[in-house]
Design goal:
Oligomer: single chain
Structural class: mainly beta
Number of helices: 9
Shape: globular
Strand content: 35-45%
Distance between the termini: 24 Å
Number of domains: 2
Amino acid sequence: MIVLVFGAVAALAFQGSPPQKPPAAPPALPAVPAQQGAGRRSRAPIVRDSTNDDSTETSGRRHQGVRRAVTADLQATAFKDATAKITLLAARAARLKQDSALVAYDAMSYERISVGFGFGSIGRDRLLFRHEAAAHVQWRQGKGAWVEVKGARNAAPMLGTSAQVEIDNETNDPDLMGEIPYFPGYEPLWVGGGDVARAQVDEKEIVHPIADGAEAYYTYETGDSISFKLPDGKVIQLRELRVRPRQPKWNLGVGSLWFDTKSGQLVRAAYRLSVPLDIWAVAQEDDPKSMDDVPVWVKPLITPMKAEVSAIAVEYSLHEGRFWLPRLRLAEAYAQVSFMRVPVKVEESFKYASVNGTDTLPTIKLPPDAPRPPDSLSAEARAEWRDSVRTANRLHARAVRDSIRQGLKKPETRRSQCDTSDVRVTATRRYDMAMPVAIRIPCDTAKLAHSAELPPSIYDPGEETFNAHDLEDLKAQALSLAAQAPLQFRASLLPPPTISYGPAMMRYNRVEGFSLGASVEQQLGGGYSGLAVGRIGLADFEPNLELSLARSNLTKTIRFTAYNRLVSASDWGHPLTFGSSFSALMFGRDEGFYYRASGVDLTRSLDADFDKGVRMAWRLFAEQQRTAAVKTNFAVNGADFPPNLVAQRGGFAGAAVRFEDETGLDPKGLRTTTSVRLETAIGRADSAYGRAAFDVTASHGLGRAAALLTLAAGGSVGQMPPQRLWYLGGSTTVRGQSPDTAQSGNAFWLARAELGSNDAGLRPTLFGDLGWVGDRTKLGQVGRPMSGVGAGVSFLDGLFRFDVARGLYPRKQFRVDLYLESKF
């Protein structure tokens, strides 16, 4: 499943596409970058292109696409100013131009692909997989490219050391190493696995904003400009083109493109897809019967299924005063399947030793059976041939890998080369058969992991190698909340709503019993979306309803919500999620304390990359709070649930803010998680309060072992209602102690320590917890704190965890817990 999701997101993120908004002043260009671098829808008439696609002449391929006709009305409204039209036409011509003056380059190519995994909003995004490679690339016009792999390594920290060998076997394929910076006809807006540029728009794919016919889908406006002088006195002027889609749709982009005004060449760009992609809806729009083969019971398990391309950014550097060649490329996306989240990030950088150098390249000798584009086929037949070749290539590559592992090789295969040499060479055609590529790789691939060309550690940020600081600045300005598709109110111009149900919307607790829910989200354009969430518990039959309006650029989100909902008072864990519900239903381990709230709130959240950064969210609220009565005591094992809190009934208005910071990706290295929470509210005159809490967790490898320490504390001022006190006990605070309303107070402290193996895939641990909760005026009279010890085992870097704990004080008891989202 993870591989499929990654493939879907990668296909979107790297198919390339449109753009977004402008930077007030583009991030620092190198002062002298001469060396290194600087549903249904009403639509216009449809055109089916049958002319030659000039963009693919290098491969002999013709492309037949589907696009709207650019009517006079569309042409008249496409450009906000005359300069925008001039810029677009120049860029369109330059994009497909074969520049015969560029005959060769010599460069180092670096790439990093990172894939994360997490359970939606309830936990951290772990690093599931990372691949890094460095290669020396030499390209010469008419001959192709020679790629010498200098370094390559992989990491899958979630899966543990036992999976590393298999991962290396699967990913140490020459075709996966050595991204080629440029070749004639290359699509300059794409990232990862470059492709040839297509002259015509094809609305069955991501609609390119510069291709012929794009005026039917986009509007264009001139943005900022900047000039700089080269040492020879030549002045380079760059101009920004702001691109906006005419309607909110998944295959239209929004962003900012910068071009050299003289050559029309792309210099830098930042863009994203205008709205998230609902994979179910898009599949059914393309083929109404596409989901017929999915069993009825399976679809709820993988709903919702959606993807977002949140940012693609590229930057070029100027060489020899005239050639713009790629310097940095970045793509960020994520997929969601039910409550699973898979973020993806691709980083590429290139450093050029020479451009148009005189070094010669040996001829690339393709295997006799290497596929070559046929010379005389119709467009349809050529497309079918191309697809069959791609499938055959994948099957052939898999067969070669298997045969190598088993030692079943022909004399000309890879191992036979290694019998007489330290390197092996493979040759193939890449980019839709457009260019021959020879790849030279050491026979001893283990040496590649320790290459000096790679960052010191695969977990390092790699600032020197993948320094995308300028691209981050460009993204922040070009992809702001103001850069959006237009706001729409006509249903025919809006994408189909996204409907979510199934396990992601199910839960079980002692108030609601088994609770079923569903949500409907509608993208409205302008960055706005409407969301309706409804659920009802089969024990209390009280309807829960949330109606919200949000505006987002996929990184920052502002949301206004009106609601009647069940709320968890706990600062730890996630009682109102599917994972916690399983433990409550099976073992009576409902560790939440609940109350009802009806009101409105305004929230703002800022998401960071899964591998770095601070997450922040604040909330303003006005709501009526009341007790949530316990309505069921059923658990499969017959255990009794603890009593629930009795809430102070009344209206409260206030604000809350939360900061979270995570550092470190290597489970064997230093990792820290920090959280700070602040809240204040006022109700009746005697119920104003303020509360603050923090917790810090640090873990580090100690040879074959690893240790973790968590320290947390909280305090308050004013009169806190019972629903805002702290409650200790349970799997997320003091293990071995049952959560209990008697173990509550307006101040607390907590310490947790663990010692386990240094393998995040399967980690046995020993632990001990101490905690105190009570009246803040009695901090000096703590006495004997709550305590518990035990042993556990976590899987997949804490994604799943099983504990057997022994309470020491105040209750001497054994507890068995199975839960999601532990930190160790």
